[in-house]
Specification:
Layout (H helix, E strand, L loop, with lengths): L9 H12 L6 E5 L6 H13 L13 H7 L6 E4 L14 H10 L5 H8 L10 H12 L8 E5 L7 H12 L5 E7 L7 H5 L2 E4 L5 H11 L6 H8 L3 H9 L4 H16 L3 H12 L3 H24 L8 H10 L8 H16 L4 H16 L3
Parallel strand pairs: 1-4, 1-5, 2-3, 3-4
């Protein structure tokens, strides 16, 4: 994969190129950002640039033997580590075929999409102590092609404590010509000692122009790409989910309005009914609702502080926000964002949906009266 194939992230690409060209490569990087921002695709392009035998100032050549091996995910000195379901296998090696197939389909995917690929029961995955032993063993060997060795650890926050502790020494004192790239969505879930041994490299949201190009190439002739750009907020995975969803904005808005209405009225029976209804939906639909709610909270704050100048909503949403936004203030916005983000996090990790949404209802009831 070349840098030109990575969506957006122009400043990040330039920084990585300069690091390689100046031979100032950090031995361990932490790519921090949502999976939908494209950190994994950037890591692959970076690895190809490092291995490339005929790189230019702007990109890898894509034609040398090393580039071809990386693009085919078969380079002997490029290794992957990722979360797996322990009852199916202890290390990433067992799942490399499925991993490569998914990467061939898309270089941008979520942890949930990966787990759905390998486990129909979608059980919680981890990066285990056995995996750390496998990583150390691979990196203790000499490079197959006499150059650098690259270890890409995807969703590094899923390392359990034993795994993380076992990797501390090799992260601090790596074997010769070893390059680590850790990818994480949540730095707070990583050991501080892991973070301290890596160079932080933030992966920001995809810029709106790049998002529009992705949306229009995914669905040519789409009538209103701006609605998807606005809701996706720089997240490619979210944008593709919105493009493929069967539900429309009106249904999401109605679901959101109903929650706010029953919680404001403190109607516990209807709150429980709402939680029952949403818990019966598929997990992706539940996550979609939580993402929509987070979007509406942020737009409410924008309307409060800027009027309609900076809001990014449809006409029907704008009409709703004119009345609703007064209930979202500095007194409760952080609580709303924190708990809806937590709900999304726990839902991805197979929390009981009925318990999760019931608890969320009572939090909303409390927060909405703090305005």
């Amino acid at each position: 994969m070349q840098f030109k194939d990575v969506i957006g992230l122009e400043e990040q690409k330039a920084a990585l190129r300069q690091e390689v060209l100046r031979d100032k490569i950090s031995h361990a990087k932490l790519f921090l950002g949502k999976a939908g921002h494209g950190g994994l695709s950037l890591a692959l392009a970076y690895a190809q640039y490092v291995f490339c035998q005929n790189r230019s100032e702007s990109d890898s050549c894509a034609t040398c033997p090393s580039c071809l091996k990386v693009s085919q995910l078969q380079h002997p000195d490029m290794h992957f580590s990722f979360p797996v379901v322990q009852t199916l296998g202890k290390t990433s090696d067992i799942f490399l075929d499925q991993w490569r197939l998914l990467l061939e389909e898309s270089k941008i995917f979520s942890l949930n999409q990966w787990i759905s690929r390998i486990d129909e029961r979608e059980r919680k995955p981890i990066i285990s102590a056995e995996e750390s032993q496998s990583i150390i063993r691979k990196l203790s060997l000499r490079s197959f092609e006499g150059g650098k060795k690259v270890m890409i650890i995807w969703m590094a926050e899923e390392m359990n404590l034993s795994c993380a502790n076992k990797l501390l020494k090799i992260l601090e004192e790596p074997t010769k010509d070893t390059l680590f790239v850790l990818l994480s969505e949540q730095s707070e879930a990583l050991l501080p000692t892991i973070i301290s041994r890596t160079q932080l490299f933030r992966i920001p949201r995809i810029d709106p122009d790049s998002m529009r190009r992705v949306i229009q190439s995914t669905r040519p002739g789409i009538k209103d790409p701006e609605a998807i750009v606005n809701r996706a907020e720089g997240d490619i995975i979210a944008a593709k989910s919105f493009l493929s969803e069967s539900r429309d904005e009106a249904e999401l808005k109605e679901q959101f309005m109903q929650l706010m209405r029953v919680c404001f009225k403190k109607d516990v029976i209807k709150m429980m009914d709402w939680a029952e209804d949403i818990s019966a939906l598929q997990k992706e639909k539940q996550k979609e609702f939580l993402e929509y709610a987070l979007f509406m909270f942020r737009q409410s704050m924008l309307m409060n502080y800027t009027g309609e100048q900076l809001t990014r909503v449809s006409e029907s949403e704008e009409g709703f926000l004119k009345n609703f936004s007064k209930f979202i203030t500095g007194n409760n916005i952080f609580e709303f964002l924190e708990h809806f983000n937590k709900a999304h996090y726990h839902l991805e990790r197979n929390a009981n949906a009925k318990i999760l949404f019931t608890a969320l209802c009572f939090k909303v009831m409390r927060f909405i009266h703090q305005a």
